[in-house]
C-alpha cells in the first residue's frame, strides 16, 4: 500500500488523490462507505478501513449520516489515513453555513484530505434530533461551485483570495431513480458544470433503469468531465429490507430483489443479499463508461471483501475474511458494538444497511 | 395522496412544520405566469415606479405587503426577495424544506413525495413538470447562485425592475458563484 498521505506535506503540493489517478487511468475503481461511530472513538474507523485496505481505492467517511450525530467526517478521514487508506470526506450542507463549509474545505486540504464528496444532506427532521435547526445555506450545486472557485480561482465567496488554495478532488452524488427521473442526468450536468469531477450514485438495484440514466449521462457528454461510480450495497436481513424500502429516502427496491430475499430461509438472507449485490456489480460492469462501484454496507463492512470476490473485483491473492468480524487490529478503546450489529427503534436505523447517499 | 384522508394528512404535515418551509403547489398555471411575466418585464415606467417605491418608505411597505399577499397566496412565497419563479416553472423553491435553488434533492419518493413531508408533493417535481409542459424545461438547468440572506423581506419586483437581481443565476458554466465582478465585491446586488 503506497500513497499514504503524509502530514508533513501540509500546505505543499503534496500527495495527489489516488482516487483521481485510478479513475483517470481507466482502471475500474472500488470505493466503500464507512460510517463513523456514535462515540468518541476513532479506532472503529481505523479497524474498518484496515479491513478494506486491500480491496478499495478509497473509503467514504459519512457526515453524520441520516442526520444523526456521529464522529465527524474529517476526524474519520484522518483515522482512515492513519492506516494508509485514502479517504473521501463527505460534506453536507445540512449543518453548516457557507462560512463553515469553505473553512471545512480549507481544513480538509490542509490536513491532506484530497477527495471531498459534496451533497445536500438528509433533513434533520429525519434524524435522531428532529428539533435541530436545518441550515442549507448553500445547496450541493452551489457548494461544488464554491469549492471549484476556491481551488481554481483561489478566491472565497467573499471575493478575498485564499492562499494556498485547497487541493481537492470534487465529488458529487446523484440518485438516478428519484423523480423527476427525466431530470436526473441534467441535475448531474449542473453539478459537473459547477465543478464535480466524480460522482457516486444512490443504491442501484435496478440495473436496467441505471443503464437508461447512464446513456443520458453519456449523451450529455458528462463522462468527459466526470467519472461515475454506481452505488451498490447488500441487504443483509429482512429488517434491513423493510428499512431500505420505507426509511431510506429516494431508494427503490425492485420487487424481484425483495422476492429473492424473502424466498430464502431466514439464516440465508444475508448470503442472498451478498449474492444479489455481487450480481448487480457484475451486471453494472457491462455498462459502457462506468468508472467504478461504490459499496455502501454501513454496519456490514465485513461483507465487502466477499462481495467483491464474488463480483470478480478482489485483488489477486487477497485474504478474504469470512463474515465473522475479525478482532480489532488497531484499537485504543472498545469497539462500539452497535456499529457492527445495530440499533433498532431509532428514527433511522442506519447501521443495518447504511443510510444511502444523503442527496 | 388524494382524497379527504390525504388532505388531512397533508394539513397535519404542514402544522408540524414549525420553521421548516412546506412544499406548496402553485394555484395558477405556469402558462398564465409566463404570459404575465412578459407584461412585468422591466421597462421605463416600472423602473420609475421602483425608484419611487425605494424613496417612499410607506408606499414601499404597502407595495411589498401587496406583493407578499399575492405571491404567498399563489405560490407560498417566503419573501426571500430574490425571486427565482421565472426559471422554476413558477413553483417556489423556497417552499422546499431544504430551500434548494438548483433542483430537487435525491430524497424524492417514488410517488413524487417530499422527503421531509411525505404527504406533500416535491415542489421541484411540480416545477419540473410545469416548466416542461410549457416548453421551459431548460430553465431548470441554469446555475442558481447562493441566496443573499440580507434581502429577505424586500420586494423582489422592485429589485427586479431595477436590475438588482440580474446575477441570481447564470447559464455560463465558467462563471463564478460570486455575484457581480470581482471588483464589485461580495454580494453586491
Overview of the molecule:
Chain A has 359 residues and is of the alpha/beta class. Chain A has one domain: TIM Barrel. Chain A is 34% helix and 12% strand. Chain A is built from twelve helices and eight strands. In chain A, α4 packs across α5, α6 crosses α7 and α10 (269-284) packs across α11 (304-310). Chain A is globular, with a radius of gyration of 19 Å. Chain B is mostly helical and 189 residues long. Chain B is built from six helices and two strands, in the order αααααβαβ. Chain B has helices at residues 3-15, 30-40, 44-55, 57-75, 123-133, 156-161, and strands at residues 143-144, 169-170. In chain B, strands 1-2 form a two-stranded antiparallel ribbon. The longest helix of chain B has 19 residues, at 57-75. The termini of chain B are far apart.
What labels describe this entry?
heterodimer; A: 359 residues; TIM Barrel; eight-stranded parallel β-barrel; 12 helices; 8 strands; 34% helix; 12% strand; B: 189 residues; mainly alpha; 6 helices; 2% strand; disordered C terminus
Helical/strand content category of chain B: mainly alpha
- Say what oligomer this is: heterodimer
Question: What is the N-to-C order of secondary-structure elements of chain A (H for helix, E for strand)?
Answer: HEHEHEHEHEHEHEHHHEHH
Secondary-structure class of chain A: alpha/beta
In short:
The complex is a heterodimer of chains A (359) and B (189). Chain A has 359 residues and is of the alpha/beta class. Helix content of chain A is 34%, strand content 12%.
Amino acid at each position: 500500500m503506497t500513497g499514504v498521505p503524509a502530514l508533513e506535506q501540509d500546505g505543499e503540493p503534496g500527495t495527489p488523490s489516488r482516487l483521481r489517478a485510478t479513475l483517470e487511468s481507466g482502471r475500474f475503481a472500488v470505493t466503500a462507505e464507512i460510517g463513523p461511530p456514535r462515540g468518541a472513538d476513532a479506532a472503529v474507523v481505523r479497524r474498518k478501513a484496515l479491513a478494506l485496505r486491500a480491496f478499495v481505492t478509497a473509503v467514504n467517511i459519512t457526515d453524520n449520516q441520516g442526520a444523526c450525530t456521529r464522529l465527524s467526517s474529517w476526524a474519520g478521514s484522518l483515522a482512515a489515513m492513519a492506516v494508509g487508506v485514502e479517504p473521501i470526506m463527505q460534506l453536507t450542507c445540512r449543518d453548516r453555513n457557507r462560512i463553515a463549509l469553505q473553512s471545512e474545505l480549507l481544513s480538509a486540504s490542509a490536513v491532506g484530505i484530497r477527495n471531498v464528496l459534496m451533497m445536500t444532506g438528509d433533513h434533520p427532521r429525519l434524524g435522531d434530533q428532529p428539533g435541530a435547526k436545518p441550515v442549507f445555506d448553500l445547496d450541493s450545486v452551489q457548494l461544488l461551485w464554491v469549492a471549484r472557485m476556491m481551488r481554481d480561482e483561489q478566491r472565497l465567496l467573499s471575493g478575498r483570495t485564499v492562499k494556498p488554495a485547497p487541493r481537492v478532488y470534487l465529488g458529487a452524488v446523484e440518485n438516478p431513480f428519484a423523480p423527476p427521473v427525466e431530470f436526473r442526468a441534467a441535475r448531474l450536468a449542473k453539478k459537473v458544470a459547477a465543478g464535480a469531477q466524480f460522482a457516486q450514485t444512490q443504491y442501484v438495484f435496478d440495473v436496467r433503469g441505471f443503464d437508461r440514466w447512464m446513456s443520458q449521462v453519456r449523451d450529455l457528454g458528462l463522462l468527459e468531465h466526470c467519472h461515475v461510480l454506481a452505488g451498490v450495497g447488500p441487504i443483509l436481513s429482512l429488517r434491513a429490507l423493510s428499512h431500505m424500502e420505507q426509511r431510506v429516502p429516494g431508494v427503490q427496491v425492485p420487487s424481484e430483489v425483495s422476492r429473492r430475499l424473502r424466498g430464502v430461509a431466514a439464516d440465508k438472507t444475508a448470503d442472498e443479499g451478498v449474492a444479489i449485490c455481487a450480481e448487480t456489480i457484475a451486471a453494472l460492469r457491462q455498462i459502457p463508461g462506468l468508472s467504478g462501484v461504490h459499496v455502501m454496507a454501513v454496519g456490514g463492512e465485513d461483507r465487502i471483501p466477499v462481495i467483491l470476490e464474488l463480483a470478480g473485483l478482489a485483488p489477486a491473492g487477497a485474504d478474504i475474511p469470512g463474515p465473522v468480524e475479525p478482532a480489532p487490529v488497531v484499537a485504543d478503546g472498545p469497539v462500539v458494538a452497535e456499529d457492527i450489529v445495530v440499533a433498532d427503534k431509532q428514527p433511522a436505523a442506519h447501521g443495518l444497511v447504511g443510510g444511502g447517499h444523503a442527496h | 395522496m388524494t382524497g379527504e384522508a390525504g388532505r388531512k394528512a397533508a394539513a397535519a404535515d404542514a402544522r408540524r412544520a414549525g420553521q421548516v418551509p412546506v412544499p406548496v403547489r402553485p394555484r395558477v398555471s405556469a402558462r398564465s405566469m409566463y404570459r404575465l411575466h412578459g407584461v412585468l418585464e422591466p421597462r421605463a415606467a416600472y423602473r420609475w415606479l421602483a425608484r419611487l417605491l425605494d424613496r417612499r418608505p410607506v408606499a414601499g411597505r404597502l407595495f411589498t405587503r401587496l406583493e407578499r399577499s399575492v405571491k404567498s397566496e399563489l405560490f407560498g412565497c417566503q419573501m426571500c426577495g430574490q425571486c427565482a419563479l421565472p426559471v422554476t416553472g413558477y413553483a417556489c423553491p423556497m417552499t422546499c424544506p431544504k430551500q434548494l435553488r438548483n433542483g430537487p434533492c435525491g430524497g424524492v419518493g417514488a410517488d413524487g413525495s417530499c422527503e421531509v413531508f411525505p404527504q406533500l408533493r416535491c415542489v421541484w417535481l411540480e416545477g419540473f413538470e410545469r416548466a416542461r409542459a410549457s416548453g421551459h424545461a431548460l430553465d431548470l438547468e441554469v446555475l442558481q447562485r447562493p441566496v443573499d440572506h440580507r434581502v429577505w423581506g424586500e420586494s423582489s419586483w422592485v429589485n427586479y425592475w431595477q436590475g438588482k437581481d440580474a446575477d441570481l443565476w447564470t447559464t455560463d458554466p465558467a462563471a463564478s458563484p460570486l455575484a457581480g465582478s470581482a471588483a464589485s465585491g461580495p454580494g453586491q446586488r
